Each structure stands twice: as structure tokens, then as C-alpha cells.
Amino acid sequence: MSAPQPKRRIVITGIGAVTPLGLGASTLHDRWAAGVCGIADGAGFCRDYEPTEFLSVKEARRLDRVSQLALVASAEAVSDAGWGEELPYDPMRIGCVIGTGIGGIETVEIQHDVMRDRGAKMVSPLGVPQYMPNAPAAAVSMRHRLQGQMYGVVSACSGGAHAIGSALRMIQYGDADAVVCGGAEATLTEFGFACFNAMQALSPTGVSRPFDLRRDGFVMGEGAGVLVLEELSAAQARGATIVGELAGYGSTSDAYHLTAPQPSGEPAARAIELALSDAGVSAGDISYVNAHGTSTQLNDAAETRAIKRALGESAMKIPVSSTKSAIGHLLGAAGAVEAVATIRTLCTKVIAPTLGYEVPDPELDLDYVPGEARPLLASNGHPPVALSNSFAFGGHNVALVLRGAPV
Amino acid sequence: MPAVTSEQVESRVIETLASFGPDASQITRDATFEELDIDSLDLVELAQVVEDEYGVVLKGEDMKELKTVGESIDLIVARAE
Fold first, then answer.
1. Most Cβ neighbours (<10 Å): which of A146, A216, A298, B8?
2. What confidence tens digit (pLDDT) does each residue in A200-237 have?
3. What average pLDDT does this structure show over A156-185?
């Protein structure tokens, strides 16, 4: 039997984000690190996003907000990667994978009202193409003329991270030379709030304070995050600016409960271990953990246990912070937006804090980066390595290992 | 039901098509749907408006034959009589 071929190394050449902190990947991390919180009135709206600045009339009326946000983030990422009108690879060799938790829920609500008020015959033919969960992927593919494998990924709050992991494998396996990947979500609607409220998942106080003793649920947000992945040697050959490396991916399932995480954190820990092994790094190499950190009682406790299980003694020394403290929970976009925030952390060497973390929970004893931002301490001249976690209703566990750009 | 004039239909059709994206100034009787980037999904929406306003039912096979804005107006007016 011949030895397995070494895995292709996959680098990140462009990132983009639209979040409650504003437009842009840098804006997201800079404002978060400065202690700015994008949550207002108990939700994380993308208030800086104005559709007419980004979309033609035709695009705007044919795309649910979830796809619109995906387009905003992908336009930034593709531009950041230096892809012009002429794509750097055969379009049939460029994939597109965009995750979402829910899809076009606003369209469903509007068209359901049309049906009730004016009859089934008046429901728009644009209903299905707007609300289908693959619509964000289709919109990004059409906008940038990406003709390789393209699909949506549906795994609730892990959707964005699963999309990035799937994209990694697509290039590693040789099915694509590059993939535009990420996640998008836009569920801040009357029905969206009603459903999540009914689960008692949302914070009644409207405050996102992950890992704090007073945490009482998550704050829902909207937005999108997109990454451009390319194979290392191809990216170097075209002279791309490499912003980081997607070094590892691991994923497991709880098979435990529809919404509650497996309390021991064991399956989640295994996802982290798989990602570390995939990246060929050990717990001691990790300089930062971007936690899923939702601000719910159950997640933050199970995630803390998972981190400790997977990272062992190193866990107590590694800074852990949650982007959700600054933007809320972006559901299917969360994993992608947080991967973007983690890459910016590696690029800027600034770890943003867990905002609002003031009262420690005696059960949760990691370093959650209280107060203010602090420098990322990189290990002995090597590019720093970080972990980004995503967990989801349904029992999905995803861990991504990201490394700073090769020096 | 009061008679529908060609002018009324023309104005309603142009207004509806303009809401789909093309510039209103481009929408003339001679303009083709292809030129205006009006596709089959748009035409289904136009048919819904027409049925709602004039009680004229336009089926998929009716729409397939239509190439220009003028043809759609003529068909609607003929059916409404």
C-alpha cells in the first residue's frame, strides 16, 4: 500500500463580513476590539447595510435579505482576494458553498400573508427562489460567475463553519482550485423572534454576555461572512496576498437532544481534537480560541467542558473570547463571521475581549478575556494558530483551526 | 365592468415592468422582453397583476409567445373585451 499523499494546504486570500458592527471584516474586528457592541434593542441588526448601495433593482427584489447579505460579504471577500472581472482560475474549478440556518424566512412570512390575504394564486413566483436555503449560494455564484460545485449547507448555527470545512475538503480533494465559502442569516423578523422566543433561547434582558454568571440566553443577530480559499501553491503562483491558512477542520454530532448540547462536551471536544489533528498541531500550539460562546446557560457550560477536554492543561492558559458578545448570535452566519474575526485576530495580533463579562461563573474557569483587548502572543516566530468553534441546535459540532499567514 | 382601454393597460403594464428593474424610459411597445431583461419569472408576476386588475387569465403558453411589450398589451386588451 502506498503512503497517503500529503494534504494540499489551503490558504485564505480574501475575507468579507457584514455584521451588526458595520460593513467590512476589519470593521468587525476593530470595533469589537475597541469594546463597541453592535447590539441595540435586544437584537443585532445590520443597520449600516443599505440595499440600494449594493444591488440593482432586479437583484434587490429577487433576493431575500439573507442572500443580499451574502452578496455584500462575498463582494468584499472576492475584491480582497484581488479577483477582478477576470477570475484567476477556470470558473468551472471555482466552488461556492454558503451555509444558513434558516434561509429566506422574511420571504416566507410575506408570501404567507399574501396567500392568506389575497389567495394562493397571488403568491409570488419569486417565493421559492427567494426562500430556498441554497439561495445565498446561488446568488453569490451568479454574481461572481463561479461555475464549480455550488450548494448551500444547512446545519443551524454551524452552517457557516460546515460550509468552510466542506470548501476546504473540496480543494484538498482536487475538485476545485478555489472556493468562495461562508454563511449568511437574516431572521430578525416577527416570526423569527416568536419562534426563538418560544424556545426560551433568547435573552429576556437583551444582553449577550457569554460565560458570565448572569447570562440568560442569546441575542439574535443577522449578517454574513465570506472567505476566499485557494490552494497554497496556486495562490502563491498568482501572487495573491495570503491573509491566513485554513489548517484544520473537524466535525462530530451529539446524537443527544434536538436543542441542548451534550452536557459533558465530549462530542464537541472530539470535533476540536479532529481539527487539531487535521492541522497537525497540538493543544500547546493554540494561541487563541474564538468560542461559540452564545450566552446561554447550557452552551457556555458544555463548551467550556469541551475546550478543557480537548485542550487539556493548555486550556487554562489560552485566551477564549466570544464574538457574540459584540454582535449577538448570527446563527448560520456565525461560524463564518467568527472565522473572519479570528483571521483578523491573527493578522492584527489583537485579541478582542468577551464584552460584558464581569461576574465569573464558578463552574466556568477559563480565561474569557474580560475587560479589554490584549495582544496575541505568538509562539516562537511561527505564525500563530487559533481555534474557532461552532455548535448548533440539532447537535452539530464544528471546529476550525486557522493559522496566521506564512511568514 | 367598465371597458378597459388600451391606454390604461399600457400604462399599467409599463408601470409593472418598471418595478421589475428596467428603466421606465426603455419600456416602449416595441421593446422586447429580452432587451429589457424580463424573464419568465417576471412574466408570471405580470400575469398575476393582470389577472388581479382585469380578470384576464394568462397561462404559461400565452406568455411564451410574447416577445414584445406591445404584444402583451394587445393580448390583455383582446382578452379583456
1. A146
2. 999 999 999 999 999 999 999 999 999 999 999 999 99
3. 98
Q: Is it the case that residue A251 has pLDDT exceeding 60? A: yes
Q: pLDDT, tens digit, for every residue of A91-111?
A: 999 999 999 999 999 999 999
Say what the pLDDT of residue B19 is.
95
Task: Quote the CA–CA distance of A360 and A205 in Å, as a whole number.
Answer: 18
Could you say which of A96, A157, A181, A347 is catalytic? A157
Contact A61, A126 (CB under 8 A): yes
> What residues contact residue A172 under an 8 Å CB cut-off, 6+ apart?
A7, A8, A10
What residue type is A374 in one-letter code? Answer: R
Residue-wise burial string across A179-213, b where 16 or more C-beta atoms lie within 10 A, e elsewhere: bbbbbbbbbbbeebeeebeeeebbbeeebbbbbbe
Q: Is B71 on the interface with A (CB under 8 A)?
A: no
Q: Which amino acid is at A183?
A: G
pTM over 0.80: yes
Residue linked to cell 485576530 = A345
**What's A252's DSSP letter?**
E
**DSSP character string of A76-132:** HHHHHTT--SS-SS-GGGEEEEEEESS--HHHHHHHHHHHHHH-GGGS-TTHHHHHS
- The type of residue at B74 is D
User: Could you give the residue numbers annotated as active site of B?
Assistant: 39
Indicate the pLDDT class of residue A59, thresholds 50, 70 and 90: very high
Q: Are strands A385-392 and A286-290 parallel, antiparallel or unpaired?
A: parallel
3-state secondary structure at position A392: strand
* Structural contact between residues A209 and A221, judged by C-beta atoms closer than 8 angstroms: no
Is the Cβ of A92 closer than 8 Å to some Cβ of chain B? no
Across all residues in chain A, what is the average pLDDT? 96
Residue type for position A25: A
Contact A248, A401 (CB under 8 A): yes
